[in-house]
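Section 3.1 - Work completed
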Amino acid sequence: MRAVLVSFRLDMARIAVSSASGFVPFLLPLLFAVIFGLAGRADGGADFATGGVVGSVFGVGTILPISAFSYEWLEQHGRMNGIIPADRTHQVIGRYLTLPVFAAIIIAETTLALAILHLTAHGNLNGLAQALTTSVLGSTWSFMVFELVLFPLFYRWNDMRKALLCVATFFVGVAVLVTVTLYLVPEDAFNAFGDAVAQAMANPAVGIPAGLGVLVVMTAVSLPVSIACRRRKEF
């Protein structure tokens, strides 16, 4: 456990350095919240601004954990070997531990940014609870799913361009699959299915266990794959 925590702290230090020491990028969504709030006060578009604020937090939170890989690529996956008391399995597990930390940061940042947005646009916090309910859990869950897909890809390839090409190919494949599904499945049946799923997920007693179950299954697949890819780089 000590080796895992050492690797975790090293990765968090790498991420902090890459983000101008102190996660400065997380200040940007707060600035956007003020800008969107002022714009919403002028034209009544505050509801639309919620998506912009949540999206900016999601973007920052998604990019920062990946920045640790850039250091690893520069170090040729071997510079820290023998320096820290951790093998490659410990290093992978330590990096996965950064995900719940950033998930908590995303929840706190989104809550603060939406509070600033509502205060700027409306002068009160009316509607904040509803905005949080409809956005925070979904964006945090999407962040975890996205990272659990990306991590094995970045462990598989040393070249960032190849990893990003694989990511792009993955999303193109998903888009094609969705398009084919929309073409083959009758629209009425598809809409009925979508509405039923949305209503079921809106119920916390169903949505939260289902979301956690998906994350558990994805972690059970993603983590061993990442460990296997990382250990193949042992020299």
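Second construct:
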Amino acid sequence: MKYNQLFLIGLVLISCPLFASEIYKCSVDEQVTFQDFPCEDAYDYGMSGFNTFDGWKYGMNILAFKKQAKARQLAVNIDTSFIYNKYNEKHINSNPDARTYSYRATVAGEYANISLFFTRQSQALYQVNVTFIVSGLPLEEKTYFYTSLVNHLTSKYGLYIEAKDYPINVDPLSKIFLNSLVGIEKVWGFNSDSVISLTGNAPSIIAYKLDYKFIPLLNQSIKETTQEIMGNTDKNFSMGAEIL
């Protein structure tokens, strides 16, 4: 019997497009199944040694996130849109393929949009993005809030490095004109797996963006997404390549 189970696990591993992903042993209608996504009641609350914004932990799965969201009655929305301002269980469970969930909160007296990002297949939290809306603040208040935010993060995560927050691939000439428009990106934990970055603080900035990323799971997200795209493309080609 044990050999049959081992053989079955081997078949699942071989046939699974994410060979390196965790395999979950689940019971469905009293039948044992093996799958590359969490079982219906397989709550994983993540790595206790790593806290992100609002207590969310890297590695926690979507099931655990939804359970905590329900307990806290958070007005969670799917993706980065904001439709509901109250907890809506039907909505939060309406799209099994969703991997980004968002809600709003007030932090130190300012409004913030929070988005949580989960890996494609293993459904593990790898990134939390917090956008502080400061467009309505007077310049002095906006600056003081930014300074207070930097001081708090520094006291918690240590020294940071910084660089101009220019758009990707901007050319040197453009930097001359953008110099007074872009902000500074500060990065904490740059030599660790958990990296925290803050962008903003230019006079024209309307929001400060705070990102928490766990690099190993970020790389896993890229890998899983790439594998899914390749798998879907291969399937489409096998079904319709004859008309090319």
